[in-house]
Amino acid sequence: MPLPRTSLRGFLAYAKGALRTAIDSSQRITFVIGNESADLDSMTCSVLYAYLRSMVPPHNAFSQLYVPVTNIPSSDIQMRPEFLALFPYANIDSSHLITLDDLPDLSIIQSKIRPENTKWILVDHNALQGQLGKIYAHRVGGVIDHHEDEGEVPQDTDGEPRKISKSGSCTSLVTEYCRQAWDLLSGSALSPGRAYAQGESLSDDSTVIKLWDAEMAQLGLASILIDTANLQSRDKTTELDTWAVEYLEAKVMSCPKLSAGFDRSTFYREIDSAKKDIGRLKLQDILRKDYKQWDEGGQKLGISSVVKSIDFQQRKACVEAEAKSPNKAYLEALENFAKESRLDLYVVMTTSTSSTGDFQRELLVWAFNERTISAARKFATKASEELGLEDWHLADNTIEEYNGDNQWRKVWWQRNVQHSRKRVAPLIREAMT
Ligand SMILES: [Mn+2]
Fold first, then answer.
1. From CA 187, how far away is CA 197, in angstroms rounded?
2. 172 Cα to the center of ligand 1, angstroms
3. Which residues on neighbouring strands pair with residue 394, listed in sequence order?
4. 380: CA distance to ligand 1 center in Å?
5. C-alpha span between 416 and 419 (Å, rounded)
6. Nearest CA-CA partner of 89 in 14, 11, 32, 7
7. 246: which DSSP letter?
8. Which residues form the DHHA2 domain (predicted)?
9. Which of 156, 254, 331, 391 has fewest C-beta within 10 Å?
10. CA-CA distances (angstroms) from residue 39 to 2, 167, 226, 374?
11. The dihedral formed by the CA atoms of 416, 278, 339 and 329, expressed in degrees to the nearest 10
12. Which residues, in sequence order, are bridge partners of residue 404?
């Protein structure tokens, strides 16, 4: 039985409650979960997919409800100002998102949610990492992703997608996959038995449906626009992204309540500047905000992706530590982060805009033992040309290459700026094996 059509707000509230009931009474649950960095793309992919599939399920759905999980504790939502800027457009707030806090504690989750009662659909990643992965990886039964295929999801996903292909935003792939379901929903009336309030009639249904569609469409649009720089990034934008933006924008524009006030570029600028507005976050939170971690042959790799330059982070570290040397304060902060996460290899990738307006990337690699030192050096040699690595320094600021007490550290400009963590992470992981 499909779920009756409702708003995103109504759906998330319902799903949260139904999840609790399902856990308490050992019912089957289908989770739709994004990656551990929990960026905008991961969040909107899981929400869009779960919403549309719950209302237009495949004939052999594992459970009636698809529950979208944002792969972070609820408190971490506050570290994502772009989420907070976007929520009003979808008529929801932080409390509506379903996060790790809505699942039983990871140390006891296995006894509360038995693996055989679950099915996991991965969006915006294709290997379930961390503690959840240890327990539930063998229950993954579908994927839509735009990262390199790690070969972990079975080929036969029976009724659910196994779609891994290139696109600027994974949300474009989800939009494409769910298009028929969505069009079906947009075209059908609300549930036939629905009781109408006084003064309300059947014709009001279409106004309501258009508003709900537009709210969902804005949610999806935000991710695609952020991931493709408003379709202006030549390296990232694919034809599918352009199609998806047109498709979603049309849904916004056919909603009389929202169309007049909607301008795509203004919308993009608002979400984008919110994303970069991380000045009031602590440096440790900035490093944690867009962070991914892997276990590679018993060695732990962590990569932070930061939307501010190293120079900015150094000044921030200096102020926070009330220190004299920005450089020293920064390195101490990085070392603390790496120690707390028990990393053997820590990488920081930055994006920023130069004083002349150019998009630029920096790459910092810090190895903490013999094995990762040799892996890091191997990576630096092998990937140098592809990534366009160039020794880093500013006019009055350098971080010297460091080699001593079982550590190695180096910083570069990454001149081939088209390569994000999506490419850099596989290169480093390859060097670690
Ligand atoms: Mn993505």
1. 22
2. 10
3. 397
4. 25
5. 6
6. 7
7. H
8. 268-432
9. 156
10. 29, 16, 10, 31
11. 90
12. 407
Q: Which residues pair with 162 in a beta bridge?
A: 143
Centre of ligand 1 to C-alpha 224, Å, is 9
Residue 104 has which token pair? 């039983």
Closest CA to 264 of 277, 236, 245: 245
- Per residue, the 3-state secondary structure of 112-137, as one string, reads HCCHHHEEEEEECCCCCCHHHHHHHH
Q: What is the pLDDT along the chain (433 residues), one digit of tens a residue?
A: 889 999 999 999 999 999 999 999 999 999 999 999 999 999 999 999 999 999 999 999 999 999 999 999 999 999 999 999 999 999 999 999 999 999 999 999 999 999 999 999 999 999 999 999 999 999 999 999 999 999 999 999 989 999 999 999 999 999 999 999 999 999 877 665 555 555 555 567 888 999 999 999 999 999 999 999 999 999 999 999 999 999 999 999 999 999 999 999 999 999 999 999 998 899 999 999 999 999 999 999 999 999 999 999 999 999 999 999 999 999 999 999 999 999 999 999 999 999 898 999 999 999 999 999 999 999 999 999 999 999 998 888 889 999 998 999 999 999 999 999 999 999 999 999 9
Delineate the domains of the chain, giving CATH numbers in brackets. Answer: 8-193+200-267 (3.90.1640.10), 283-432 (3.10.310.20)
Strand 140-145 to 118-123 pairing: parallel
38 CA to middle of ligand 1, Å? 9
Distance, CA of 364 to CA of 177 (rounded, Å): 37
Q: In the structure encoding, which two tokens stand for residue 417, read together?
A: 């700026």
> Contact 342/369 with Cβ under 8 angstroms?
no
> Strands, E, within 222-358: which ranges?
291-296, 299-306, 345-353
Rounded Cα distance between 315 and 323, Å, is: 10
**Contact between 355 and 311 (Cβ < 8 Å):** no
CA of 41 to the centre of ligand 1 (A): 5
Distance 169 CA to ligand 1 centre (A): 5
Q: Among 75, 63, 65, 69, which residue's Cα sits nearest to residue 109?
A: 69
Tokens 């190293």 correspond to what residue? 310
Please report the DSSP string for 346-402 in residue order: EEEEEEEE-TTS-EEEEEEEEE-SHHHHHHHHHHHHHHHHHHTEEE-EETTEE---E
Give the distance (Å) from ligand 1 centre to CA of residue 376: 25
